Structures are given as C-alpha cells and as structure tokens.
Amino acid sequence: MKKLSVPAVGIDLGTTFSVVAKLDDEGRPQTLINAEGERLTPSVVLFDQDAVVVGREALKALAIEAENCAECSKRDVGHRVFHKVLEGKQYPPEVIEALILNKLRIDAATQVGPFSKAVVTVPAYFDEVRRKATQDAGYMAGLEVMDIINEPTAAAVAFGFQQGYLNREGSSIEPQHVLVYDLGGGTFDLTCMEIRGTEFIALATDGDVRLGGYDWDQRLVDLVAEQFIRKHGADPREDPRSSGKLWRECEDAKRTLSTRPKATVICEHRGLIAHVEVTREQFEESTQDLLDRTRFTTVQTLKAAGLQWSEIDRVLLVGGSTRMPMVRKMLEELTGKPPDASVAADEAVAHGAALHAGLLLAKEQGLPRLFRIRNVNSHSLGVVGIDPLTKRRRNGILIPRNTRLPVTAKRTFKTSKANQRSVLVQIVEGESPSADECTPIGRCSLPKLPSGLSAQTPVDVWFHYKPNGRLKVRVLVPGTDRKVETEIVRENSLPKEHLDGWRQYISGVPPTEYR
Ligand code: ADP
Ligand code: MG
Fold first, then answer.
1. If DSSP states are collapsed to H, E and C, what string results for 5-18?
2. What is the per-residue pLDDT for 515?
3. Which ligand ends up closest to the CA of 353?
4. Ligand 1 pocket, mutate which of 12, 13, 15, 16 (most atoms under 8 A from CB)
5. Is the Cβ atom of 212 under 6 angstroms away from ligand 1?
6. Is 298 in the pocket of ligand 1 (CB under 6 A)?
7. DSSP class of residue 118?
8. Is the CB of 255 within 6 Å of ligand 1?
9. Burial of 86 (0-12, 13-18, 19+ CB in 10 A)
10. Whose CA is nearest to atom 23 of ligand 1?
11. Distance between CA atoms of 14 and 100, rounded to whole angstroms?
12. Over 80: is that where the pLDDT of 340 sits?
C-alpha cells in the first residue's frame, strides 16, 4: 500500500467502551492505547468541579459519586438533554460524547501526531437524528469526521481484511454471507452482509438501541438486591452510593460467570453486608427474555435479507457481551454452526473504521481503493401527509427500510387548500403508518408559492439518502420556479452557533484534566 500523508484513524465510540485504531505503514489496522496504557477507554465522563475526567478514573468514580458521572451517554443521543443533571447543568448527550472523543483524539495524537480527520462508527440501527448528533459530537471534539460507518459493517470489513479478502488476489471468489451479531454494553446491532469480491454489501439490518450488557447487569443487580432485602430488610438500590458500588460488583460478577459456573457478589448498604452467590444458571434464567429478544431480531433480519440459515457462511461475534456463553449457545442452536469469534470482539469495529478511513484518504489522494461498502437504511423514511378522509397524520413512506443506499426517491403530495402560499414538509422515520408513532427528523418549508394555485396542486418531494444514512431533501412545485433544496431544520439538534461554542469550550479544557 502506498503511504498516506495523514494517519488513517477510526474511532469506535461505544456506549460503555471506546476504541481507537489506525492503519500502520503496511495498511494493517492497529489498536492505539490511551494515556492510561489501555486499549479500551470507558465511555464515562466525571464532572469534577472545573475538571473533566474521561475514562478509567471516571468509571471508578461511578461507584462512589455517580451523581457527577455521565455514563451510557450514547443511549441518550438523539434526545435534547442527558438524563442526569450534572453539577446543576443539563448537557446535550452529544456534548458528553464530544468530551469522550476529545480525550480519544488527544491520546491518539501522542502516537500518530496531531490529526483531525477520522471515521467514527455508529450502530447500524441509529436513526438519522442520532447520526447527525454523532457527527456533531465529532465536530465539537475538534475532529473532522470524514464519514460515519455502521458498526457491524466495520466489523465485517475488519473480518474481511483478516481473511485476506481486501487484496484482489485474495478476495472472496464465492460470495460469502456473514451475519454480524454485535451485543455491546448498551446497544444490540445485527447486520446481514454479503462479501462479494472486495465489495461489502449490507443486505438487511436491525437492532435495538436500548439493549445490551447494561440490561444484563441490571438483572444481576436486582437479583442480588432482592437477596439483600431478604437478609437485611433494606434495599441497596435506594442509595446512589450503595447502588453504584453494587453495579460495579455485578458487572464484574457477570464477567466471572462467562468463565465460571458461579460468582459471589459482595453487597454493602448502611453498614450491613451480604455475600450473595449467583450461579450461571440463575443468571441465565433471569436474563432469558433479553436473549430471546436478540434471537427474535436475528430471525427477522435473516428473513429481511431473504436468506436461509444454510446460506449463512459465518456468524460473526462482535461486542463484549457476546462473551456470555448463553449468547454463543443460542446462536449455535439457531444457526446449526458454531459462531465465529475470530475477530477481536472489542476491537474489530475500530479496526474496520480505520480501514474505511484509509480508503477515504486514499481516494482523496488519488490512490486505488481496496474495497467498497454498500449500505442499506435501517428505518423507513417518510413525509407526514394528512389523510383527506380521516384527517389523521399519516406516514407517507418514500424509502422503505433496508433499501440499498445511496437512493433517491420522489413522492408527490397535493396542497390541501386553494391559493395555498406555502408548503411545510415534515420528515419522519419509522415503520408505523401513523406519523405520530414515528420519530420526527426535521422539517423544511417552501414559502412564497405563486398566488392562485388551486387546491390539490402537486408538490414533489425528493429524498436523497446518502450511503452513511444522512439525508438531503428537495421540495418543488412542478410548473413553478419554486424549489428548495435544504438542509433540514432538525428536531433536537444543536444549532451551529451552539456547536461552535461547545467546540471552543472543549478545546479549552487542558488535556491533563482528561487523565
Ligand atoms: P459498547 O460497544 O456498547 O461500548 P463493548 O462491545 O465494549 O460495548 O462491550 C461492553 C459490554 O460487554 C459491557 O456490558 C461488558 O460488561 C460486557 N462484557 C465484556 N466482557 C465480558 C465478559 N467476559 N462476559 C460478559 N460480558 C462482558
Ligand atoms: Mg460496540
């Protein structure tokens, strides 16, 4: 591979852990270590008066001063504010994500030199609003986000690299079908990919942005708390400190249960103590419904991809939670073959992102591209229309989910009144026919229509959906010169001046305070 003039950096911004990787001189992905010397950085931020601490120390603080810590901010991305008030302030979740990215950037720069260009990963199941928020987080962290890439796709690319598919000589000759099952800390993501030569084609994708190892922890916390109540008559979950400590203990015990048949959790509350033994069997029983949800989604996704289990060549395990034996057992039963744990569960996503960054940089510099990614959209996109009979707000779908991207779609709507002078287009994402059950993404308006248009004048709405799942909209009234091509005015999104304000604030936080 010809050498790139800037480093190719990929960032897996995870719900619980984040990972940064770069391409080495031979074009091989390599995980970078953080300032603490670790490959995984806990995605936790501690607000400690004026200092901001990100990573391991913040994770430790979570057990004793949870009220000052922001954890799992990725789960809140897309909402206006983070679910917890921190030192009297309400932060947008993407600002917390930006603080994490900033530490990752600073730490990585010690190894690759100062850089700003990077690829950041998102769960395939992230909707448009969350994708935009992630790009904004990158911007506030002083990064130039060249692209966002879906996590399962990145994992598949890392896998392909490892198998030697990215060289033309070694490229897979027979198309391979790979199911990427990614169960992390806070999200579950599933994608069915076809690897055809050096092309990575997503066939179908699904998942749950609120399902992950965290939910397994919660069950264990409840299990132990109930034992504690039985013994001492008090609930450790009521006190933030006892509960914070219990969470850490349980997360640890959960890991133990991945390798051993039982684990002991020490629970302390109000000076009382209990040693609670949990067996793997008990743990698996109490979390069976969570696993079943992933199983159900897996079956659905295969169907959406139009494939049979016999056509799946590999099931790729990604995400720390796939280390739980119950996950592997379930997948083996379902697919009839042992799942493939050949990629590093925690690092594959960052590696794939670095490979994608390398690809984009090579393209910029006029070097040949090694592989190609084809994506699908994970949610249907539509426009709110009013049903003339029922007057209900309907979701007029333009781009059904799992459509190959990029795609351009047009749909014609009609004005409702005579002499209507403006049109408002509201864009929603979701599968329900009722617009109120979908996620509003934003709106754009077409003002100053010529006067005298009759009712039922057609209005064309064009959507251009880009391969990274971001959207462009164009609205026009045929036969008039009125058209707008707009960046959508977004719901729950920070305006540019706020982004710049935060970017400045974050760049001013001295790097040592991130340690
Ligand atoms: P994310 O990308 O969502 O941040 P990761 O892929 O890093 O998540 O996975 C983190 C999750 O994996 C956490 O919930 C953690 O408890 C869990 N995990 C890590 N190792 C193990 C293990 N050995 N057994 C069970 N769960 C594990
Ligand atoms: Mg992950």
1. CCCCEEEECCCCEE
2. 42
3. 2
4. 16
5. yes
6. no
7. E
8. yes
9. middle
10. 255
11. 10
12. yes
What region, left, alpha or beta, does residue 388 occupy, with left being phi > 0 and alpha being psi -120 to 50 degrees?
alpha
Task: Indicate which atom in ligand 1 lies nearest the CA of residue 254.
Answer: 25
Q: What is the pLDDT of residues 399-429, one digit of tens each?
A: 999 999 999 988 887 888 899 888 888 999 9
- Give backbone dihedrals phi and psi of 84, rounded to 5 degrees, phi first: -115, 140
CB 312 within 8 A of CB 302: yes
DSSP 3-state of 320: helix
Nearest CA owner, ligand 1 atom 6 = 319
- With the most atoms of ligand 1 within 8 angstroms of its CB, the residue from 11, 15, 17 to mutate is 17
* DSSP H or E segment with residue 281: helix 280-305
Answer yes or no: are the C-beta atoms of 164 and 170 closer than 8 Å: yes
**Pocket of ligand 1 contains residue 94 by CB under 6 Å:** no
Structure token pair of residue 20: 């940064």
| Dist CA 288 CA 326 (whole Å) | 9
**What is the spatial distance between Cα 481 and Cα 352, in angstroms, rounded to a whole number?**
45
| Residue 455 CA, distance from chain mean position | 43
Q: Is the CB–ligand 1 distance for residue 15 below 6 Å?
A: yes
71 Cα to the center of ligand 1, angstroms: 14
- 280 ligand 1 Cβ < 6 A: no
CA distances (Å), 427 to each of 68, 215, 395, 473, in order?
A: 36, 32, 9, 9
Q: Quick check: CB of 17 below 6 Å from ligand 1?
A: yes
Q: How far is the CA of 482 from the centre of ligand 2 (A)?
A: 45
User: Pick the residue with more confidence: 437 or 513?
Assistant: 437
DSSP labels, 123-156: -TT--HHHHHHHHHHHHHTT-EEEEEEEHHHHHH
Mean pLDDT of 24-44: 96
Asked if residue 320 has its Cβ within 6 Å of ligand 1, the reply is yes
Please name every residue paired with 268 in a beta bridge, in sequence order, or none if there are none: 273
Please answer whether residues 260 and 324 qualify as being in contact, where contact means their C-beta atoms are separated by less than 8 angstroms: no
- 126 Rama class: left (phi>0) / alpha (psi -120 to 50) / beta: beta
Find out whether the beta carbon of 323 lies less than 6 Å from any atom of ligand 1: yes
Does the CB atom of residue 469 touch ligand 1 within 6 A?
A: no
pLDDT in tens, 111-158: 999 999 999 999 998 988 999 999 999 999 999 999 999 999 999 999
Cβ neighbors of 226 (< 8 A, separation 6 or more) are none
Specify the residue for token string 């070694």. 170
* AA identity, residue 514: Y
The whole-angstrom separation of Cα 463 and Cα 95 is 29
- Quote the CA–CA distance of 314 and 291 in Å, as a whole number: 20
List the residue whose alpha carbon is closest to atom 20 of ligand 1.
320
Query: Residues in the chain, how many?
Result: 515
Closest C-alpha to ligand 1, atom 19: 320
Residue 2 pLDDT class (50, 70, 90 cuts)? low
* Residue 50 pLDDT level (bands cut at 50, 70, 90): confident
